[in-house]
Amino acid sequence: MRSDDADDNAQPLSHYVGASLDRYFESLNGSAPPNDLYRMILEQVERPLFERVLAYNQGNQSRTAAMLGINRGTLRKKLRAYNLDQ
């Protein structure tokens, strides 16, 4: 366990998302922002979410779907889309 884990847990996830977005916008440095930011962010968040929750549930898709609050069909579709269905 990292020594700063306690500090990490002190903030809600939205804090880190907001900070990441602030860094992203700063990194644009005057260049044109993307046109499809919403889709881009969802893809960036969904893949690791599915990976980690699936690993936490030791590959059990039923438990993973229940934990995520989605049905198994939706989970399977997302896993295929991110090539996580192997």
Structural write-up:
It comes from Salinisphaera japonica YTM-1. Residues 42-82 form the DNA binding HTH domain. Keywords: DNA-binding. Pfam families: HTH_8 (PF02954). With 86 residues, the protein is mainly alpha-helical. The chain has a single domain (5-81), classed as Orthogonal Bundle (Arc Repressor Mutant, subunit A). 67% of the residues lie in helices and 0% in strands. The protein has helices at 5-8, 13-28, 37-56, 61-68, 72-81. Helix 3 crosses helix 4. The longest helix has 20 residues, at 37-56. 5% of the residues are buried.
Fraction of residues in helix:
55-70%
Q: What percent of residues are in strands?
A: under 5%
Structure annotation, total helices = 5
CATH class descriptor: Mainly Alpha
Provide the domain count.
Answer: 1
CATH architecture tag: Orthogonal Bundle
Q: What structural category arises from helix and sheet content?
A: mainly alpha
Give a quick account of the main beta sheet: strands, pairing sense, barrel closure: none
CATH topology: Arc Repressor Mutant, subunit A
User: Can you tell me the overall shape?
Assistant: globular
Distance between the termini: 30 Å
* Beta strand count: 0
What is the C-alpha radius of gyration, as a whole number of Å?
Answer: 16 Å
- Please tell me the overall pLDDT: 90
User: What is the N-to-C order of secondary-structure elements (H for helix, E for strand)?
Assistant: HHHHH
Which consecutive residue ranges, at least 5 long each, have pLDDT under 50?
Answer: none
Say which CATH homologous superfamily is assigned: Homeodomain-like
Pfam families: HTH_8
Keywords: DNA-binding
GO molecular function, one term: sequence-specific DNA binding
InterPro entries: Fis_DNA-bd, Homeodomain-like_sf, HTH_Fis, Trans_regulatory_Fis
